[in-house]
Amino acid sequence: MRQSGTNLPKVGRYNRAVVLDQIQLADGISRVEIAQYTGLTPQTVSGIVRRLIEEGIIREDGESKGAAGGKPRTTLRVNADAGCAVGLHFDPVELSCTVVDLLGRPLVVKKRPARHVTDPAEVVKDMAELVADVLAETGVDRDKVLGIGLATPGPIDLEHGVIVGAPQLTNWTRVPVQHMLSETTGLPVTLDNDATAAAIGERWSGAGRGVADFAYFFFGTGIGGGLILNHQVYRGGSRNAGEFGHSSVLPDGPECYCGNRGCLERLVNPTAIVAEVHRRLAAGSHPDSALARVFAEDPDAVDHAAIRVAAAAGDPVAAAVIDETAEHVASVAVDIANFLDVDLIVLGGHGIQHVESRYVAVVAAALKSRPLSRHIRVVEVEASPLGTDAAVVGSAALVLHATYSPQLSALVGAGVTPGSQR
Amino acid sequence: MRQSGTNLPKVGRYNRAVVLDQIQLADGISRVEIAQYTGLTPQTVSGIVRRLIEEGIIREDGESKGAAGGKPRTTLRVNADAGCAVGLHFDPVELSCTVVDLLGRPLVVKKRPARHVTDPAEVVKDMAELVADVLAETGVDRDKVLGIGLATPGPIDLEHGVIVGAPQLTNWTRVPVQHMLSETTGLPVTLDNDATAAAIGERWSGAGRGVADFAYFFFGTGIGGGLILNHQVYRGGSRNAGEFGHSSVLPDGPECYCGNRGCLERLVNPTAIVAEVHRRLAAGSHPDSALARVFAEDPDAVDHAAIRVAAAAGDPVAAAVIDETAEHVASVAVDIANFLDVDLIVLGGHGIQHVESRYVAVVAAALKSRPLSRHIRVVEVEASPLGTDAAVVGSAALVLHATYSPQLSALVGAGVTPGSQR
Hints:
2 copies of one chain form a homodimer.
Chain A: H1 8-25, H2 31-38, H3 42-54, E1 58-64, E2 73-78, E3 84-91, E4 94-101, E5 106-113, H4 120-138, E6 145-152, E7 156-157, E8 162-163, H5 177-185, E9 189-193, H6 194-205, E10 214-219, E11 223-229, E12 232-234, H7 264-267, H8 270-283, H9 290-297, H10 304-312, H11 316-340, E13 344-348, H12 356-369, E14 380-383, H13 390-404, H14 408-412, E15 420-421
Parallel strand pairs in A: 3-6, 6-9, 10-13, 13-14
Antiparallel strand pairs in A: 1-2, 3-4, 4-5, 7-8, 9-15, 10-11, 11-12
Helix pairs in contact in A: 1-3, 2-3, 4-5, 6-13, 8-11, 10-11, 11-12
């Protein structure tokens, strides 16, 4: 593990990315403002802006008034349709696909049930079909497609673009999915795990825009996490950072498959939530619970989605269980605040659909009252504005991030983006 | 919060620091090896090395054989006595002071009880006297003193070099100690909290040399922490990262002064450990415990130090309590492994003197069996080789770090080192 030096071409690419990042984050910005915010000289900014305009990535868009008596400043904006990225989220039960513009805004999202999940070649074929579908539907010029971002359940081997094998993915032992999908589609493929992809999506076009340090909780079948520290994706030495789901919140709690006890994910997952609600509904009478009446007629109808909808509507049994699970999430959020002093915690993923505001309320209350540094500043919490599409929009953002974001790893590393292969 | 661009002078300073870092980390290294490890061109490396030799910071030291048939390579080493740094640790009960050479090796350590702690001006006077003492005793040339590193209990305001006020420091409300000490001594002063200083000391001359990502637990009166991520000190948005002591390890545990419950620091601190050992000794007969016999004669003799010495010697009561506290530390270490995927966890500070190996054994066992990524790699744990001098040696390392380390904040930030003032 060595620290690398840097050189002029890397500096040029980095500064270009820094300038583009400012334009992407702002709703219209002038050259003078970019120089102020980035510390770059006006000359450097002008040179980079000229080349970005020539390449069609940004455009001049009217003038704004400068300081009193100063000459008007030209507003710069990203040409959102100068390029696009495809995102694919491979969930064991569903494939989702999107095309996003240069600002990370989805033009379309298509989903289909995942078929033949035990046969990687068939899954890659389905992925390629779905990509062809969304490109046809949006009618974007193929030359403008920067690449495909593929988000999959972890663990993956980013170095080799390989899915190592997730609990639910039988036969996926070291499948070179990145290479296979690139061969089939003729497009470069960037691979990452779904929680990291979703975190990058938040940084690009969600709640984390312009935020230096934030933690992202991804609620899917399990609980994944992603970390953006100092504006950079933080992955850790073996690229396994962000496993918030395996924090032990009840030291004497039930055993988790991971080998730890009382893990957050063991207590807060769809199966556990459904089991707990069923237990309470079966154990007592709940005259004020609409969900209890459904349960009496058909217990199977009280599934995870029904519980979340009921909790959102204020059903007392469903709401109590959801709020208790949110308390566990809050404990881990407080640990993250104490360990990492992040600016923001983002909650996202389909697992909290309908109950986002309950989760946010419980976590916000904990962050206001328990971290040591709360008197200096309170860590914010937000639900992802990307909703259930966080992972698929995030997977497209992987491509934008690899192509455009100012990445220190490119400045002081070997200059190779992990997990990207053409 | 914006990402800054960079420029040629910053790149030059950064690359110089990267080269010096390689020489400092290696026990003899050639120009060719530096180029290989850093990715810098041989020309860039040669230019930087030439200037470092001219400035007397490094020297050529014999030749080693190059690759088969290649010409011999000149070995480069840091001139350890080309400069030195003073370290001061301000603990509410004790002032410690050291002078270290350019490799971070202490030439002397002096301690004195902290007097007049309620009068900041008197404390600064004592600090200045202690600095004069160690400089006189080591006889180093004043011109060679790079500066003073001052480590204090947090929280501090690094921006303004001010101690904000720690629980044990009455009258220390926003005292501009950095400026006061610099005025009195005529030397530049770098301020930081003691846990961060100790972590930087580990990175410079302790267990963390050359390690990209590690977490440091500092056991003093409380439990502090420091994080080195991607070879950089990670401080967080409000500079309060690393509060490992306030992780809630027992959700229903006793209330902590911080507002959380069952905090690690609440369970693992000298007072709590002494109380628990006394409780057990008073409650039952322990024929196999030498400590029980001491307790029977004089309970006050069974203090924190005596308990640690007894545990190290295998006393069953002391060892059981120490191992139980180590289990709590292990839980937080597992969380850090899951959240941050660090390479190493370092345990240090006077609070674990004599029982370092018991703590390391318990934490190592947990890191081997509980983090999710343990099948990919096991996170290491080590006791700090700096022992009880971790904070004072670390405070001197603050100066070396600010002067010599390749800091990304200097490359892509405003170029100002936080907390340093001349």
